[in-house]
Amino acid sequence: MLFYLQQNISFGGHHRLYSVVVSLDFLHRETLLGDGVAHLLVGVGAALDHEAEHGFKIAKSFGEECHEVPIGFKYISAGIDQYDAVLGGESSGGLTVRGHIHGKDSIYAASLFVEMVCAMGSPTKMIRELEERFGTFEMVEANLEFPAARKPEIQKTLMVDKKLPEFDAKVVRVNYEDGCKVYFEDGFVICRFSGTEPLLRIFAESTNPVRAKEYIDTFKKFLFE
Questions:
Q1: What is the dihedral of CA 29, 131, 183, 65, to 10 degrees?
Q2: Are residues 74 and 145 in the same domain?
Q3: Of the candidates 42, 44, 45, 46, which has an alpha carbon nearest to the alpha carbon of residue 19?
Q4: What is the CATH number of the domain that holds 212?
Q5: Domain that holds residue 50
Q6: Residue 167 in contact with residue 184, Cβ under 8 Å?
Q7: In angstroms, what CA-CA distances link 24 with 33, 79, 119, 149?
Q8: Averaged in consecutive runs of 10 residues, what is the pLDDT profile of the chain (225 residues)?
Q9: I want to staple 93 with a disulfide (CB 3.0 to 4.6 A). Which of 1, 8, 59, 156 is the partner?
């Protein structure tokens, strides 16, 4: 996958979405999108990290939209059709484009990456340019074990009663599409159950990693203390 190619050349963490944001920027620079609506589609919830925020900013800079869908490539594929999105991807590095197969295609992604390098030069330079234009964000995560008997209680607190911790930052909006995701002016925090393990996953991002950790700690205290 494109993600793994980038990771191998020191592009950083395991939740990178550069495969989406760089591709979107490249497609626009090379005028490959045509005159139609060109939406960007990314998975919501735990998958979103600071590259996803870059995706929103890049799309907005071109007068376009970025849509969020639940985690899982089946939702991304469906969203491609629903929004006529030009590009969709998730934090694992999987991506697809409008008119291509409804699933991850590592060979296509790697080919697109090679084409971008040929057209635009150094991958590191591309990333730095995007960060200079759209800023940087840092992501922090926590995986919490809990007694199985507490899951209904936690689920009710977050998703039914929709109670939130007392954050020391202004809450801009809350998304319950895939867990409880709270947005702030400088980032977000999301709390959701793992779909594969008996864990509660809390992810946060901000322009400051210390701030992101504070968002996670606030959620942890609210649910477990």
A1: 0
A2: no
A3: 42
A4: 3.30.310.50
A5: 2-134
A6: yes
A7: 10, 16, 14, 44
A8: 34 44 60 43 36 68 77 80 78 73 80 78 77 80 91 94 95 90 90 87 88 95 90
A9: 1
CA max distance for the chain: 55
User: How confident is the model at residue 27, as a pLDDT?
Assistant: 63
Residue 3 is given by DSSP the state H
Any idea what DSSP says for residue 124?
Answer: H
- Domain boundary (134, 166, 187) is at 134
Residue given tokens 């005159």 in the structure block: 35
**CB of 89 closer than 8 Å to CB of 17:** yes
Apex 190 CA angle, 215 and 24, nearest 5: 110
Which pLDDT score, from 0 to 100, does residue 26 have? 61
What's the pLDDT score for residue 145? 92
Cα separation, 3 vs 94, whole angstroms: 7
Using CA atoms, how far apart are residues 166 and 162, in angstroms rounded to an integer?
13
Task: Give the per-residue pLDDT at 25.
Answer: 62
Question: What's the CA gap between 125 and 69, in Å, rounded?
Answer: 30
Distance CA 44, CA 2 (A): 20
Q: What would the two tokens of residue 24 be?
A: 């979107």
pLDDT of residue 10: 33
Same structural domain, 49 and 126 = yes
Which structure tokens are listed for 25?
């920027």
